[in-house]
Specification:
With 122 residues, this protein is an all-alpha fold. The chain has 2 domains: 64 residues, no CATH class; 49 residues, no CATH class. The protein contains 7 helices and no strands. It is elongated and about 75 Å long. 2% of the residues are buried. Pfam families: Dimer_Tnp_hAT. This is HAT C-terminal dimerisation domain-containing protein. InterPro entries: HATC_C_dom (IPR008906), RNaseH-like_sf (IPR012337).
Length: 122
């Protein structure tokens, strides 16, 4: 924490008063400018902090989508499903745009080829 505070004090004097850092309109522009001017090497903790700030909305949205999917999938009827099956089902639900492109017949053939079965899958 001490190192971050130290970097922020120097950052305030160096970067905020630097001409090329004036008139930036977003945090992502600030990060890009830090990288282009190589000031990210001097202020590596500040750069990491900005990156965390920029990824926070994505992380929160992903978590909210996952809980929403779990709520839809894990109903009273399916409340006893194993954790692994629940996780697999949630992945398919969350990534449903990708899952729509999967050829089910190919999956069945792949599964069937893994070992000999008493009954045919098709």
């Amino acid at each position: 924490m001490h190192h971050l505070r130290f970097q922020l004090e120097h950052y305030e004097v160096d970067v905020l008063h630097h001409k090329c850092f004036q008139n930036l309109s977003s945090t992502s522009e600030l990060l890009q400018k830090l990288i282009r001017t190589n000031k990210s090497h001097h202020y590596n903790l500040v750069e990491r902090l900005i990156r965390l700030i920029l990824t926070l909305p994505v992380s929160t949205a992903s978590t909210e989508r996952a809980f929403s999917a779990m709520k839809r999938i894990k109903t009273d009827l399916r409340n006893r499903m194993e954790e692994e099956f629940l996780a697999d089902t949630m992945i398919i639900h969350i990534e449903r745009e990708f899952a729509q492109n999967i050829d089910i017949d190919e999956v069945i053939d792949e599964f069937d080829s893994l070992k000999q079965r008493r009954a045919q899958l098709k």
